[in-house]
Design a protein that fits this description.
5-stranded mixed sheet, mainly beta, 666 residues, 22-stranded antiparallel barrel, Maltoporin, Chain A
Length: 666
């Protein structure tokens, strides 16, 4: 209620005395591409979108890519461990939320249900922008976008800029962070190149006043990027490579609560290489053609050993993904535009397990069937048409997904899934400042190899393969309003998402393996998610602005007649920003209500338990100053030293601490 009161009073103050000399806010002026796979202003898109740019990321000293989105309207970030971070969009996460990097799918055929750590494999220092599209994305990008789509765009080198570079260092109190980074770039008239490398170490995470140091939570990581851009006739060729590797990342709650001596991601590695060619033509049908060929490889190695157990278990999974995207931008008339294309991805999975005894054993079946593969082929088309004050958007996608699962015991299974999903939206613009819209879209998530071929311990269960699954579906409805004037911008929406054919783990009666209850996945549930989002930004004068957002989500498992698992509590952020010359000061207040509406799976999850999650409030202050070639950033976190835990997380949030960042440019 305090935030709503603040928003109402602020809106009244601003609207009572508008100053035409004040520049417009950034909330609805950002140009984004994720919604339609083409450039559009957030204000004109009939959907709720949040955008975070590199200036914001640098000034907030965000530790990881998931943590960049903490406080973003409609995005709740869960952390199973210090080296993870799983964004929830519209109450869904894991393989029910689609992640993209430069238009390429990060999701692969082993993305698991519930929170995962894969979003953390994107270098936060390489990011130019993150776009969060709420409640849709399947028509444009395919499987998994039941809750929404998050796309990361990496920085580009600049043409004709000459030679540039910078060195960057960050240090945190209580040994929470040590970061060193170097970046160089060179720009010619028709070519530009940049490269960087970063090395980081994170000590054990300090919690709030009653928590103290959370031992066995620290880890290390390194990352590097290369990108080159060339002007070739009428087109632009981009060649890029991204590398990330984290090592010895403990799964904190398992060590603390499940009697493990060792439980960690020994290696979490990702390599992505891609070539993209964009060319403009004089044809209305093919005004611009974008072609991207990509190769991505992820490697995850896990080690676990219970206290007193004689053996150390080592599991190793490698997934290689080849992708091809061809997109056509069409401009049929002044009022009719379209974005269409074809898309193909092919995954190959390698998985094994070893037991390290006094006499090492031979490799055995891993978490996934070794040599399995998944292929996806799709065509799609999105159109928008404007007439007077009305705008109409329609889209459709047809997707075929083939799985070939090779199991030593059960044999080889070949499965084929076909999905056709539509989207439609109607917008009304009564004037240049207002936009009201209604939209509907259908999302889908095809079963993947993690769903159908998993054999082993997952969270606090032992899972066995399931080969009789069908796609999940989400029918998303949204009613929204956007307002943009010189001093203030507001966006608000109410949403309803009907989930059907949900794949869920079902307990196998009287079956126990290695002390864990046995589960198998089945399409047996339906659920719903509803709620609202409110986001506001305004300027009081040229130096001072304010902002705030609030998100409420109500999830219900219709089949079980109980709350939907891991539904985030009501959460939000409010604050002010003062900027003068080269100085910025930004205090922020983040908060979340208690979450006592628990599913039976939440109660049995030792990260949540029968008491649920307590409410919390924290105050952070960010400041930055730049002078010539020097940039200085300071983050003061959790000034009240509050004990808090993000709902569903396996580790508490950071206690009172400070991080100092220094960048020298040349």
């Amino acid at each position: 209620m305090n935030l709503l009161f603040f928003l109402q009073i602020s809106a009244t103050i601003i609207s009572s005395g508008p100053d035409s000399s004040i520049n417009k806010t950034n909330l609805l002026n950002e140009v984004v591409v994720t919604a339609n796979r083409s450039e559009s202003r957030i204000f004109s898109i009939p959907a709720t979108i949040s955008s975070v740019n590199s200036k914001y990321i640098e000034s907030h000293l965000s530790r990881t890519t998931p943590e960049i989105l903490m406080g973003t309207a409609g995005v709740f970030v869960q952390k199973t461990n210090h080296g993870g971070g799983s964004p929830f969009v519209r109450g869904l996460t894991g393989n029910q939320t689609l992640l993209l990097v430069d238009g390429i799918r990060l999701n692969n055929s082993t993305f698991r249900y519930g929170p995962n750590q894969y979003f953390n494999t994107i270098d936060p220092f390489s990011i130019s922008k993150i776009e969060v599209l709420k409640g849709e994305g399947s028509v444009a990008y395919g499987s998994d976008a039941l809750g929404g789509t998050i796309q990361v765009f990496t920085k580009d080198p600049i043409f004709s800029s000459g030679f540039h570079g910078n060195v960057y260092g960050r240090m945190g109190t209580q040994n929470i962070e040590q970061t060193g980074r170097a970046e160089i770039s060179y720009g010619f008239k028709n070519a530009a190149i940049m490269a960087d490398f970063t090395r980081r170490n994170f000590g054990d995470l300090p919690g709030g006043k009653n928590t103290g140091i959370q031992k066995n939570s620290g880890y290390g990581e390194q990352m590097g990027n290369f990108k080159s851009i060339f002007k070739i006739k009428k087109g632009i060729l981009t060649l890029a490579h991204q590398y990330f590797e984290a090592s010895d990342v403990p799964v904190y709650h398992k060590i603390q609560l499940e009697d493990y001596k060792v439980n960690q991601f020994t290696v979490q590695k990702r390599n992505l290489s891609y070539a993209k060619y964009s060319v403009k033509t004089k044809s209305l049908l093919f005004e611009q053609i974008n072609t991207t060929l990509s190769r991505q490889k992820t490697n995850e190695k896990r080690e676990s050993q219970k206290n007193g157990a004689p053996n150390l278990t080592e599991e190793n999974d490698q997934i290689g993904t080849t992708g091809l995207n061809i997109n056509f931008q069409s401009n049929f008339s002044k009022n009719w535009k379209a974005s269409s294309g074809i898309e193909a991805y092919h995954d190959v999975v390698q998985s094994d397990k070893k037991l390290h005894l006094a006499n090492p054993s031979n490799p055995s079946r891993g978490l996934y069937p070794d040599g399995s593969s998944a292929s996806s082929y799709a065509v799609y088309s999105l159109h928008s048409y404007t007439i007077n004050k009305w705008s109409f958007s329609v889209g459709h996608r047809f997707n075929i997904i083939d799985l070939r699962i090779k199991d030593e015991t059960l044999g080889t299974s070949e499965l084929n899934f076909k999905s056709a999903v539509p989207s439609i939206a109607i917008s009304y613009f009564p004037n240049t400042n207002s936009h009201s819209y209604f939209r509907y879209n259908r999302g889908f998530r095809a079963p993947n190899i993690d769903d159908m071929g998993t054999l082993g311990i997952v969270d606090f269960r032992y899972e066995i393969p399931a080969y009789d699954l069908k796609p999940e579906f989400a029918d998303n409805f949204e009613l929204g309003y956007k307002f943009q004037s010189n001093p203030i911008a507001i966006t608000g929406s109410i949403f309803y998402n009907k989930l059907s054919n949900l794949i869920t783990r079902v307990k196998v009666d009287e079956q126990v393996i290695n002390g864990y209850p046995v589960y198998i996945k089945e399409n047996v549930e339906s659920a719903s998610l509803k709620g609202f989002e409110l986001d506001l930004e305004g300027k009081i004068n040229k130096s001072l602005k304010y902002f705030g957002n609030l998100t409420y989500t109500y999830g219900q498992n219709i089949t079980k007649n109980e709350p939907l698992r891991r539904t985030p509590p009501t959460f939000g952020r409010t604050g002010i920003e003062f900027s003068k010359s080269n100085f910025v000061l930004r205090p922020e207040f983040l908060f979340a209500s208690a979450q006592k509406r628990l599913a039976s799976g939440d109660i049995s999850d030792n990260r949540i338990g029968p008491e649920g999650t307590a409410p919390w409030q924290i105050l952070n202050v960010f400041s930055s100053y730049s002078w010539k070639s020097i940039s200085l950033n300071l983050a003061l976190q959790n000034l009240g030293n509050a004990d808090y835990r993000l709902h569903g997380s396996g580790i508490n949030g950071v206690g009172r601490s400070a991080i100092l960042g220094l960048k020298l440019s040349f």
